[in-house]
Amino acid sequence: MNIGFNRVELRLAPREVLRLYDPEGARVECLGGELWITQDKDFEDHFLAAGEALTLDHGGLALIHAQRASDVVLVEAAPRMTLRGRLARAAGKWLARTFGPESIDRHSGVGWLRPL
User: What pTM did the predictor assign?
Assistant: First the structure.
């Protein structure tokens, strides 16, 4: 989803359509009015009334159609961590467990590091 904001509030006129591209993980909140939401590769359509919300769970195109004048809040999904980022985080945790302050407790009583 390429909104450029973490959260955006919109007022849709009756029969107005909002197109979201690759919105997987984004949250749609209906503050007032009625919305019809359909997503690419989703066999189910969703209808939201005031006070209801939906997290979009498919990539591709999603259409949000206002059945009547509606107030909508869109909350963009948090960016996904890349494989490189996940590996770096795992390596950092391993280094901290192996050589950081937490490692002292694990090595006590073993080898040259014995309690007094």
Answer: 0.64
